[in-house]
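Lecture notes, unit on protein representations.

Consider one protein chain, 349 amino acids long.
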Amino acid sequence: MSEPPTYRLSDFDYELPAELIAQAPTESRSASRLMRVAGDTIEDRTFSELPDLLSPGDLVVFNDTRVIRSRLRGRRETGGRVELLLERITAPYEAWMQLSASHPPKPGGRVRLPGGASAVVEERDGRFFRMRFAMDLSLDAYLERYGEVPLPPYIARAPTEADIDRYQTIYARHGGAVAAPTAGLHFDEALLLRLRERAIARAYLTLHVGAGTFQPVESEDLSRHRMHSERYTIPAATAAAVARALAAGKAVVAVGTTTLRALESAASGQGVRAGSAETALFITPGYRFQVVDRLVTNFHLPRSTLLMLVSAFAGFARIRSAYAHALEERYRFFSYGDAMLLERERPRG
């Protein structure tokens, strides 16, 4: 047998015209386009057709994390502007943050924040800063009052009141994410009803998306990249639903890469383990999937860990063809963009 190919960072690059980066959502959630990629077949659909592409008894698993207002703007004591993006709250007045500034403060440096609050840098780990906050509210309550919706940087505008609703799934329940699980943004109540009418089962887990998920890969050697861990919880009812689907030979359909990573991280025999854990799973081509059969996902950034994940899932050559088709057909990319329904690549022979 021949050795599987070894992929490098540059293998996951592509040219994307700026006008294809979606700057706003479609008028209705399920009106976005859906590219179905199954084997060597590529079909152009609309997202509202998704229930027709699944079978009765299939299980669709959603991530019900809720995006919190996790971006803060402040100033250094010298007057320079500072932007903070929450990574994870570790105590009532302490958190790891991403920090953007022309001259980032060193440990001991102070940042002035709205409402008379302030934060001091305790330590730095690469792009992340552990910060201690001084404020009248708990940090989560402060973010709810003074924080902004954390639209990604490729959306070149300030967040609006509409983003408070649209940059959130309709089934979001558990607060803690600093970015939306964007594949879920396409689902509306009518679409969920269609799934139920077709006897397609639903289940939920929670993975709080952290800013570390989008940390750029900086080495051509993918083995040198370190994923930041994220916490997930799989309820017992969801673990039981997965076991039933697998036992019956039905498809387990993950809505989004966060759902897939949680399910694959918890894989155990013919199912998944219930409970809470941390995952730093980095999926690249060659990974052997144990749980997920189909994946609903948006289009991902060049050279990103998420593009590597979908290339592992559907096949490297197949994803390259799908993205070339998406560019030719003018699909809308990234968080507010269109979606794909991917079939898992099966080993030959």
